[in-house]
Design brief:
alpha/beta; single chain; Rossmann fold; five-stranded parallel sheet; 11 helices; six-stranded mixed sheet
Amino acid sequence: MSTIKLHDKYFEPYIDQGKIDLIVKTLANQIAEDCKDETPIFIGILNGCFMFVSDLIRLYPYSCEVSFVKLASYQGTETTGIVNELVGINEDLTGRTIVILEDIIDTGGTLQKIYDIFKNKNVKKLKIATLFFKPDVFKKELPIDYIGLSIPDEFIVGYGLDYNDLGRNINSIYKITTHKMTNIVLFGPPGAGKGTQADLLKEKYNLVHISTGDVFRFNIKNKTELGLLAKSYMDHGNLVPDEVTINMLKAEVEKNTDANGFIFDGFPRTTSQAEALDAFLSEKGETINAMIALEVPEDTLVERLLERGKTSGRPDDQDESKIRNRFNEYNTKTSILKDFYAKQNKYFGANGVGSINDITNRISTIIDTL
């Protein structure tokens, strides 16, 4: 069980199927003990009760009848407080024992409507059984004969319960949660091992790694609309406008709306790009949590890159002057962004010297404190 998204809301695991099965079995046994000498009519309150009714009836050991009434009072995650009878009872209930099966009782508005419906039905006995009960918000002084499980006042879905019509088919219960992504801007000078760390961190924290270089190459190779637009600028020796780049990144984010977060690698590189990224994430109720910069002495990096150049085949890894020029460019860009994120208390430096595991642990310590 993991966090799920229904419409615009996120829900986390709450009650597993095994526990639900046990609750339903206990309720079936309790009702059977009280009604074993007669044939009760079980009446389910639609729509949410259909799984509960089905499972309980299968477990009920004696003769019984089944019917349904449809009532509604919820819109989204809030009860309207107004209960409308949508589908009524057609059976003659005179002298019968009625067991109402409810998926959940919270404020008691629906329960009050049930009692109002049945007060003139001349029933022998009216019993109420609910799978879930929210005592903290129950506002009525009405009897409830069988309660499966009392829960706090949290909005739940699954096992017949829905959020705007979704989630009913889930066989366990989830509760609403505030889903917040962990979004990292990962910076590091050439040779700092940023790519290696990004690969490890995305696995450890189940994040999506968005490399600007990879995104550009994908779009250009696949001749997407944005890729062709970017290529048109590059073919003329011009810089690709920020708007094109950010639109590519937006597309990658939109592909992964259920992600736990993102590692942005190679973006932003300017203040305007950082502002554009902030604006985009803000629209989604998210933010950048940290800019983490790997810190490695320049001389150490020069040695690493010259060594790498022996096998990488990259000319810019084989010329020390070119290497140091890349550092100057990096330091300039990092300095600008360091100030931008430092003002938001989101800039973190991480020692990039040591074993791969040591560096990963240092970065993880930062992420774990966010």
